[in-house]
Amino acid sequence: MKRFIHFLIIYAIWLLLTWSFTPQELLVGVVVALLAELLLGDIFPYEGVRVFHPRRFFWLFCYFWVFLWALIKANFDVAYRVLNLYLPIKPGIVKVRTKLKSDMGRTFLANSITLTPGTMTVDMIGDHLYIHWINVQSADIQKDTEIIVASFEKYLERIFE
After folding, report:
1. Residue 80 predicted with pLDDT over 60
2. Is 48 part of a structural domain of the chain?
């Protein structure tokens, strides 16, 4: 039953993205959804009805705006560093700690950090993330965590925990 629900969700997403109801599009959608479920169905986050709880969607909506703001700030920061010849760039790999417990939450955090210009998640080991940062500001784990992770983490805790 779980796999059938996953298949329906993937197929519904296919229909929303293609917005085409021709027979060949519907058939290709069935094949793609079926393959996606068979190959990736085990990694789909399933916690019963909690996955679709409206509270999670509310926090995901809030997180979108937080992420968008961080993305805009980071883009301007990187562009300013590229265009200004005298602005120091001090690249390095920093270690930060996350409070997130679920694998999906940690993956979402790592991807959010990587999508933000100037930072890229290199590795995840336990509750630590190793991040390549374009301008390392400190060598303190707590301070780096506050700068890079904290704004994302408080919303992701509410979505994935």
Report:
1. yes
2. no
